[in-house]
């Protein structure tokens, strides 16, 4: 019996259909609830993760909508985090510390100017002038005229 040759079958990749505006609305609402594109792509009737990413890269309008949905997702995460914190039972110190640290973290992200961490390594200099416009300090610098003339001559040489 002659041996059969296995011939490779060409694989044709079908292009994915365009994502409809209704599907995009569903995707954006899922993102607003805190789901990732990868999680959304596993749903029935949803486009692949790669297709969604390519579409977002190709369209500035879709990318802008996606960015806004991600901002709203942060609020969904915050709500979920607060629910988890309030569900902590017990009066032990670790549970209370977790509750307080979580609330402080949320406050620092919500109002960073007021509740954010201050940079400890950088010394803060006082303003150069007082509120009435007068300078805080007056400095006197003595310049040796001979040294100044020598530096000036060095700079003008070709």
How would the blueprint of this fold be written?
Elements: H1 21-32, H2 37-41, H3 49-58, H4 60-86, H5 93-110, H6 112-115, H7 145-156
Structural class: mainly alpha
Strand content: under 5%
| Total helical elements | 7
Helix content: 55-70%
**Mean pLDDT over the residues:** 79
Sequence stretches where pLDDT stays below 50 over 5 or more residues:
none
Q: Give the helices and strands as they follow along the chain.
A: HHHHHHH
Radius of gyration, taken over Cα atoms and rounded to an integer in Å = 32 Å
Number of β-strand runs = 0
Shape: flat
* First-to-last CA distance: 94 Å
> For the report, how would you describe the main beta sheet?
none
Characterise this structure:
With 158 residues, the chain is mainly α. The protein contains seven helices and no strands. The termini are far apart. The mean pLDDT is 79.
Question: Short description, anyone?
Answer:
This protein has helices at 21-32, 37-41, 49-58, 60-86, 93-110, 112-115, 145-156. With 158 residues, the protein is mainly α.
Describe this protein with a few key phrases.
158 residues; mainly alpha; 7 helices; 56% helix; 0% strand; flat
